[in-house]
Amino acid sequence: MSEAEDRSVNVTDGDLVKPMLVLSGPIILSMLLQVGYNLADTFWVGRLGEDAVTALGLAWPLVFLTISFAGGFTVAGTVLVAQHKGAGNDARIDHVAGQTIAFVSVLAVAFSAVGYLLVPQLLGLVGATPGSEVHRLAVDYTRTIFLGVVFMFGFFIFQALLRGWGDTKTPLYLMAFGVAINVVLDPLLILGFQDNVLFGALGLRGLEATLLDLTGFTGMGVQGAAAATVISRALGATLGFAWLFSGAVGIHLSLDDLILRRETVERIVRIGAPASVEQSTRALGITVLTALVAVVGADAAMGKDAVVGGFTIANRITSLVFLPALGFARGTETVVGQNLGSDQADRAKRAVRAGVLIIAVVLVGVSVVAMTFADSIVGVFISGEGAADVTAIGVDYLVVVGPTFAFLGAFQILQGGFRGSGSTTLAMGFGIASLWVFRIPAAYYFSQLAGMGPTGVWWGIAFSNVASVVVAAVWFLRGTWTENVVEEEHATPAD
């Protein structure tokens, strides 16, 4: 690949903050576009009413659990590619990239099959009443997503490998393409060509009637949101892999790189398994939290569906905060990985400190906006019967949790520093503690034992955001996490 075609950012020499921002900026934009996927689904599904939104909220934790388990292994791809590039081991980069793709793809296929079969039972565990309309809608949505998990993972792997290389612009372009496809498909597949609010807003009722006569398509409902996501991800993954095999993005794969080799797979598992456990236990924690919200909601005056629906929408809005912070943390992983690979531990530490300061300042401003305009923000995503109750729950969540957004962001940056060094076991420990030591017990105490109801769950979330960053910061200041650099032989793997 020629010099002019290399989009990677140099983060190991010269100024640190500017290239870190240049690297992280596209990741943050990609994360915001990821939210675009989620919010578009929530917006159009919200046109179907409370049952549909509740079904989406109950389905998502299960999907997230599966994605998180296999997705954690993509962290290994980022760390290995980043540290090899920092150390100048160019011959190893293609190999570890191909091995990551092959291994994670195998995991994705397995979880897709298992998840599809167990969906009805698993949804019952998170609060969906078997036989109810909400349960039926959630099953349709989740099973469709599981059928396309392999395609979804193809895109996530592409992002992870390019991040390690230092190119975050190409994944941004691909994400924008996917979001555009999803935004077009969502209203069409969800609502079809009968009383579609999109056609009404555009003054195209005549065209809508013609299309209905030609196709008879009246929409897939909630399942249409899943179908739109799968189709757009499949197109993105296909383009991403074409670029990887052509060498157009710096990494140049061959079919031989996809043949799994025990030594490399063991390294991927050693680095990726803790990240996978962290992400999957986080997803499981979110599932348990959703179940707790459903239990608490059953005793609330507004009812379970309203409480779960409000929690779902507030969670999607909070992802506007969490995902950009996570995006900046992903950029921190690359900066730390490449600098430790080039034996610059002090520079790696400075990168983490700068990231914490930047994200904290930004999220203080976001908190003010979220709390000030909470009612208007939540109201955008729900209409029809029960909308007022759902909105009230979402507003209550944002008012309680909003002031802790800066702590949530700082914790993600610290975690990114730990992962970039290869200290994924350490990051796993803090990630598990955040949910299972601080969040869920506190949420249960405030909501059940202290009798605060749904608001108690929100206070448990706020408490965990603060407690987690305090504990992680103490460990960061010890400095021992930089000792856990991944060591690799420099030889190219044998055929």
Descriptive tags:
495 residues, mainly alpha, membrane, MATE family efflux transporter, Membrane_Transporter-Flippase, MATE_fam, transmembrane helix
Question: How would you describe what is shown here?
Answer:
The protein has 495 residues and is an all-alpha fold. The protein has one domain. The protein has 18 helices and no strands. Helix 5 packs parallel to helix 10 (222-246) and helix 15 runs parallel beside helix 18.
Low-confidence stretches: 488-495
Number of helices: 18
Mean pLDDT: 85
Helix content: over 70%
Separation, N- and C-terminal Cα atoms: 23 Å
Number of domains: 1
Structure summary, number of beta strands: 0
- Spatial shape: globular
Beta-strand content: under 5%
What class, by secondary structure content? mainly alpha
Order of secondary-structure elements: HHHHHHHHHHHHHHHHHH
Specify Rg, calculated over alpha carbons. Answer: 22 Å
The major sheet is characterized as: none
InterPro entries: MATE_fam (IPR002528), MdtK-like (IPR048279), Membrane_Transporter-Flippase (IPR052031)
Protein name: MATE family efflux transporter
Subcellular location: Cell membrane
Keywords: Cell membrane, Membrane, Transmembrane, Transmembrane helix, Transport
Question: Helix and strand layout, with pairings?
Answer:
Layout: H1 17-46, H2 50-71, H3 74-87, H4 90-125, H5 133-147, H6 149-165, H7 169-191, H8 197-201, H9 205-215, H10 222-246, H11 262-298, H12 304-341, H13 345-372, H14 374-379, H15 387-401, H16 405-420, H17 424-449, H18 454-478
Helix pairs in contact: 1-7, 1-10, 1-12, 2-4, 2-5, 2-11, 2-12, 3-4, 3-6, 3-11, 3-12, 4-5, 4-6, 4-11, 5-10, 6-10, 7-10, 11-12, 11-17, 12-13, 12-15, 12-16, 13-16, 15-18, 16-17, 16-18, 17-18
